[in-house]
Specification:
The chain is of the alpha+beta class. Helix content is 45%, strand content 24%. Strands 2-1-3-4 form a four-stranded mixed sheet, covered by helices on one side. α2 packs across α4. Belongs to the thioredoxin family. Pfam families: Thioredoxin.
Length: 103
C-alpha cells in the first residue's frame, strides 16, 4: 500500500486523504460530508479514504494522532492537514483553491 500511496499523492491533481476508523462516530459524519464535497469538486480533486487500523504505518508517517484527520496532497507535498470534522464548504473551497493554483 505504501508504494500505491506514494503514487497517489504524487498526482498533479489534488488528493484529499480521509484518515478514518470504522469504529469512529465522527468519521461516519465526515464520510457523508465528503460525498457531497466529491460531487462539488468533480474531477478537480480525488478523495481517498485510509483506514488507520488497516494502514497504521501510513497514518504514523503523517502524524495522524486522532480520527478523522484530513490531509491534502499535491505533487507529493502535504499542503494541509487537520483533525476533526470539517464542513462541505470549507473542504470544497480548499480543494478548488489548490486545484486552481496549479493551473
Amino acid at each position: 500500500m505504501s508504494q500505491k500511496f506514494q503514487e497517489l499523492i504524487n498526482s498533479e491533481r489534488p488528493v484529499l486523504i480521509d484518515f478514518f476508523a470504522t469504529w469512529c462516530g465522527p468519521c461516519k459524519v465526515q464520510s457523508s460530508v465528503l460525498n457531497t464535497v466529491k460531487e462539488n469538486v468533480g474531477e478537480l480533486a480525488r478523495i481517498v479514504k485510509i483506514d488507520v487500523d488497516q494502514f497504521p504505518a501510513i497514518a504514523a508517517q503523517y502524524g495522524v494522532r486522532g480520527v478523522p484527520t484530513l490531509a491534502v496532497f499535491q505533487n507529493g507535498n502535504l499542503l494541509w492537514k487537520e483533525s476533526g470534522v470539517h464542513d462541505v464548504n470549507t473542504l470544497t473551497n480548499l480543494l478548488q483553491n489548490v486545484a486552481n493554483q496549479s493551473n
